[in-house]
């Protein structure tokens, strides 16, 4: 994993390697170098299997992170490429021509995180949510609890008591 | 020739007996099939429960007259078939409304129900119905072909178009049955029988997995009940014809019961063990295996 | 296509004369001894600490006052009421139960016409499985949170006998952290304290700021952004 | 035997962007929905078919019928509270969710699950694999109208569910693999009952072999149908039996051994024809291999020792910032959890990589073109997809 990282660093301006396990590492890639890095890994290093492509919302840092996880079956190693970019007007280059299956991931990411992948096929078709009228729901600032309360009713007759408050009230009704 | 009006209530009595026998037999065969799957199977009266429940329900949507007539046609096909062939040979009560050329009418009635369904289901406007009709009609037609050939062979053999006469010719010992006098015709007809019983490998028409969900879902409530009634009568009626043409007919109800049961079991026996053909595969299968047998049967005569 | 392919399928019929294996009466089949079935609660042992409510990720448990159970020192007088419309029988509430009063029987059939009856207080509302012996019980080992208080080291009697050194040695920092970690932030001792500021259950934690439990009592109950009771009803929150 | 060659002159042309130019108003094409409630579909999904005659010219997978946003829900639950909901992501084989989630949490928090717990986990995973395959075989035969197979395999699966029930306390959602270990050891007499169950499964599989795999009609329907080109494996991320039937021995148990698979003897099952028949056969042989693995596990596993690691109090358990990916070989392929933590008591992001995600979407849409409508169900079942993995 280290050797691979050193080889890659000669070619691309990569960040530090985070070695989670001996066979799994994560490395940050600038958005502009993503495609050549992926191509290099796929065609030269044997990382032919795109395991997953997903996003992480770092709301506090105002960043989206895309993780491209690639796997090399002959060495049994995985490398995750992290790409970070601002949350506003989030968009990323599409890789559906490298792996056709990425189109599905990108469709889901557009719907769930609102990240645009220009050129990806059927990108704007609804994937899971039909008639969704709120902000993309997997963003951190989407509050599921608030949404649920606004749209669904609760079962009547449910009420609970906080043991501490209840006890204080019962034992010291005057608030002593 | 004067018409004997008493024949009508007697024929209806036949229908009644056959209906109940069909209901019980259907459940029995299901139980036997369940045994092959290592299950206990349904209670023997389950079909009656379903039928009564379905007759008690009404639909709340409308599709047009033809749609509703579909199950009626289907049932007419079943009852008509039964009415015009002699069920019990030699019995005045249960020879029904048979007449000299009834074999031709019977052949027509076998097809009549499917045709009615096609018209009815087509009216529903459902795209699946169109596919189902195409499949149903093409498969029934091709399955009918060997049967028709076998019937011609039998008609040629006995030189008559009257079912009663054909049965009469087969009396006097097992060796007189068409089964032994013309085995090729029987073989062709039995293959056709598999095709018309809507059991695997020829049940793609009603196969829910393979899209044309078909009449059982389109029709519901009392319409479904009509079709269930038909499902109790029609196979038995068809087996009565087979019994009469190829297996020496029946001279008493117990003989009838045994023969029909064995015929019914034959379709289940094959059906449990095989998956289904696609339509064009089954057409090809009939053309390759069953039709030549039918042709040979005619040549044999 | 070989002859075998045509004939071999008919071997299916060999089952015809075997006994069927389907269960004729599925309703009265007894569940396995460990089965996670309906809840039982020993109301005498239960102290109403509400930890089961905290851990329930479905928001199925409410703490409700029960007639005949007095609020007294060490017992909030509340008992858990479970909404079986939400329960998923994961048994985390049983695992976390501080007093091991909450258990699960291996009963699994219960029929009612009124859906509201499926909101019930185990142990208080009498049910047919209340005395069932078998079922899932709170395990004895440390699982979700420690339940046994760590023993404080004491001086050996030989040393004690001729000195005035404190006999009880107190906890080391690690032990204290672990002990503070056991706190489930139920609030029961805090509520009965004369002045809650002077004696607070989380005091050991404030003494050792390195402890993971430092902010635990607040975060477990009322976390800042990601609400623990994300799915629960507003009335229950 | 070219009795009939389909007339493809009516087929739609491709537009510049690669999509098909389908004019429904022309009457040449018909839109059909297979699903979402339809016996010939795997779970709650649907395929929007455009057909020309009896042939499919385009198929689009639609999911979302059971979307509950598990990944989002988990962001609002503490690490232990996530544990009861992950199993719901795959109903017929829920244990891989529990295992992958627990393993990811352990990886990030530096906790080692005890040796005995690892053996227990491997046992559960293999039992779940058998269950999943049994369900598949019934479904594959049922999709082609051979109902009797499903009845036998359901019986065999029921026996396995009994073993699950006595071991884990539940039949479907076992909720047994906690982060840090497992909930309990084996009950008394489990080995013997397990052996009886395995024998019964083996005898059922022999019957299945006779009736389903030596069946003229079944062969007619499945041989040469639905071929996955080995070149597609990397393009579409195909894993598991679908890849193994294409002659590529992809098996996480062998490639990146987890739990105790290093100590077990097995060889990944492969096939070469890559059609529906081969895929069913690979799964049948894989099932028998799992039976063998369970025997090995029961013979080798330690019978005493801790079942769960020393854990911090899970009520206020925090995991330092980090990210990891943990995978396992489930009955459908590579199952993985990508977990990101941010130092709080809640996961920052959980992403479930279910094998069906690529199989049922991109791969199925590619394979469904130019097949008969009747074969859609058989093809879909043969990819062995479970929709909840897609929509999570």
Describe, in plain words, how this protein is organized in 3D:
The complex is a heterotetramer of chains A (176), B (301), C (237) and D (392). Chain B has 301 residues and is mainly alpha-helical. Chain B has helices at residues 7-36, 46-55, 65-83, 102-123, 127-158, 163-169, 178-181, 183-196, 215-218, 221-246, 253-271, 279-300. Chain B has one domain. Helices cover 69% and strands 0% of the residues of chain B. Chain B is globular and about 55 Å long. Among the domains of chain C are: 28-120, Alpha-Beta Plaits; 157-220, no CATH class. Chain C is built from 8 helices and 5 strands. Chain C has a 3-stranded antiparallel β-sheet. A two-stranded antiparallel ribbon of chain C has the order 1-4. The relative contact order of chain C is 0.14. Chain D is of the alpha+beta class and 392 residues long. Chain D contains 14 helices and 6 strands. The chains are: A alpha+beta (176), B mainly alpha (301), C alpha+beta (237), D alpha+beta (392). Chains in contact: A-C, A-D, B-C, B-D, C-D.
SSE layout and pairings?
The complex is a heterotetramer of chains A (176), B (301), C (237) and D (392).
Chain B: H1 7-36, H2 46-55, H3 65-83, H4 102-123, H5 127-158, H6 163-169, H7 178-181, H8 183-196, H9 215-218, H10 221-246, H11 253-271, H12 279-300
Helix pairs in contact in B: 1-10, 1-11, 2-10, 3-4, 3-10, 4-5, 5-8, 5-12, 6-10, 8-12, 10-11
Chain C: H1 3-7, E1 39-41, H2 51-55, E2 61-65, E3 78-83, H3 92-96, E4 102-104, E5 119-120, H4 157-160, H5 173-181, H6 188-192, H7 203-207, H8 216-221
Antiparallel strand pairs in C: 1-4, 2-3, 3-5
Chain D: E1 30-34, E2 46-52, E3 55-62, H1 70-74, H2 79-86, H3 95-109, H4 115-143, H5 147-168, H6 190-213, H7 216-222, H8 232-235, H9 241-244, H10 252-255, H11 276-300, E4 322-330, E5 333-341, E6 347-353, H12 356-367, H13 375-382, H14 388-391
Antiparallel strand pairs in D: 1-2, 2-3, 4-5, 5-6
Helix pairs in contact in D: 2-3, 4-5, 4-11, 4-13, 5-6, 6-11
Descriptive labels:
heterotetramer, A: Beta Polymerase, domain 2, 5-stranded mixed beta sheet, C: alpha+beta, Alpha-Beta Plaits, 3-stranded antiparallel beta sheet, two-stranded antiparallel ribbon, 19% helix, 8% strand, elongated
End-to-end Cα distance of chain D, whole Å, is 46 Å
Shape of chain C: elongated
- Give the total of beta strands of chain D: 6
CATH superfamily (homologous) name of chain D? Cytochrome-c3 Hydrogenase, chain B
Give the total of beta strands of chain C: 5
Q: How is the quaternary structure best described?
A: heterotetramer
Q: Main β-sheet of chain C, in a few words? A: 3 strands, antiparallel
Question: Separation of termini of chain C?
Answer: 67 Å
Give the helix level of chain D as a range of percent.
40-55%
Strand order of the largest sheet of chain C: 2-3-5
| Global outline of chain D | globular
Task: Give a short account of the largest sheet of chain D.
Answer: 3 strands, antiparallel
Radius of gyration of chain D, rounded? 22 Å
Counted by DSSP, the helix tally of chain C is: 8
* Helix-strand pattern of chain C: HEHEEHEEHHHHH
* Radius of gyration of chain C, in angstroms, nearest whole number: 26 Å
CATH class term of the domain at 28-120 in chain C: Alpha Beta
Please identify the structural class of chain D as seen in this structure: alpha+beta
Query: What fraction, in percent, of the residue positions of chain C are helical?
Result: 10-25%
